[in-house]
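quick q for whoever's on today - can somebody do inverse folding on this one?? i tried earlier but teh output was garbage lol. tokens:
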């Protein structure tokens, strides 16, 4: 039996008018029950399902009579009381701008994880005529599980801390770390330290650390030298900054000649503390947004993540790909480098770094 992909094809198979088949599938009382049952049974047999985007388009045109359609996409964000993911604002801006460019509105819906009412989120989406959603970091998978995905499609924008079972668009952390290491090598730095606040979530920290270790191993293989014991990141609570001497001693002990961090707070510490300035010769920011200050680093292009998520969601709607995908795919957005005076001029290793490296090499060969 051939698969029917349009309402008109289904009407031709049943030898009924397009309007009658449409009304029958919509459950309107103007259609005789026997005809309605016949249409519904045929739709199931032929594998036909209505395209929610086309239905929304026709409904809006009939209501407005103005010939202008603006579809509505949902943006599911954590509640206002939750700690916002640092990338959320840029992702939302990129998504909102792209949605407007392509004839859609983006309706933000904040999800309170403490709301016990099951089905509430689905009712909100249905009432607003939303058939496609973009989820931001921080949304619990349990809230997504309560949705009826039969006529709904979605994309997750940003790092997925949990398995969302949706297609994901996110910044490429591995490429960002490789870009940083390449810039450090060009500037003469060979032993960067990773200093993390963890404000972007535990899963993201694990990804960043894995990328850091991979780059250290690649450098060791490139230079055909033995890799010392991989250094652990220096973790700190953003609300309880460590004494500058503690970080300076840690940098010296590890023979580090540069710092890679996820927050510009560390850059301010280095600038204001003489012992930290003496302990390191460079600084790179893992996520440096445009206009993010004087320190160099990687721009993860979060706005492009939001923009690409809208494009991916629109493609699903146009192809009528509702439901959670059988094989969720991840789209990685490549980063770009934002230069600064900090990393432009190569600098020789200081004496304490050279001595520490010699000590570590002796331990490794002992």
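ok took a stab at it. sequence:
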């Amino acid at each position: 039996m051939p698969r029917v992909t349009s309402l008109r094809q289904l009407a031709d198979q049943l030898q009924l008018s397009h309007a009658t088949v449409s009304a029958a599938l919509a459950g309107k009382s103007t259609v005789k029950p026997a005809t309605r049952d016949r249409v519904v049974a045929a739709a199931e047999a032929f594998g036909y399902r209505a395209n929610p985007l086309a239905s929304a388009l026709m409904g809006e045109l009939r209501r407005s009579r103005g010939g202008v359609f603006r579809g509505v996409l949902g943006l599911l964000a954590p509640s206002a009381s939750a700690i916002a993911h640092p990338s959320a604002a840029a992702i939302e801006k990129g998504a909102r701008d792209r949605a407007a460019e392509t004839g859609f509105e983006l309706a933000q819906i904040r999800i309170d994880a403490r709301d016990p009412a099951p089905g509430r989120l689905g009712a909100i989406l249905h009432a607003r005529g939303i058939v496609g959603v973009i989820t931001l970091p921080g949304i619990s998978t349990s809230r997504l599980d309560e949705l009826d995905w039969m006529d709904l499609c979605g994309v997750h924008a940003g790092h997925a801390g949990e398995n969302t079972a949706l297609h994901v668009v996110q910044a490429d952390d591995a490429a960002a770390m490789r870009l940083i290491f390449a810039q450090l090598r060009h500037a003469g730095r060979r032993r960067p330290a990773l200093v993390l606040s963890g404000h972007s979530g535990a899963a993201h920290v694990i990804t960043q650390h894995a990328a850091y270790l991979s780059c250290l191993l690649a450098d060791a293989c490139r230079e055909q030298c033995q890799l010392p014991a991989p250094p652990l990141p220096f973790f700190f609570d953003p609300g309880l900054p460590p004494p500058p001497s503690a970080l300076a001693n840690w940098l010296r002990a590890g023979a580090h000649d540069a710092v890679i961090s996820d927050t510009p707070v560390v850059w301010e510490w280095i600038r204001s503390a003489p012992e930290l300035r003496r302990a390191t010769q460079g600084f790179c920011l893992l996520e440096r947004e445009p206009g993010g200050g004087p320190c160099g680093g990687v721009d993860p292009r979060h706005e492009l993540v939001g923009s690409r998520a809208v494009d991916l969601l629109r493609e699903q709607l146009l192809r009528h790909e509702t439901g959670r995908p059988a094989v969720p795919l991840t789209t990685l957005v490549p980063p770009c480098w934002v230069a600064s005076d900090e990393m432009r001029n190569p600098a020789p290793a200081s004496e304490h770094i050279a001595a520490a490296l010699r000590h570590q090499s002796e331990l490794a060969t002992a």
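fwiw The radius of gyration is 27 Å. also The domain at 173-300+338-365 is CATH 3.40.50.2300 (Rossmann fold). so keep that in mind when u check it
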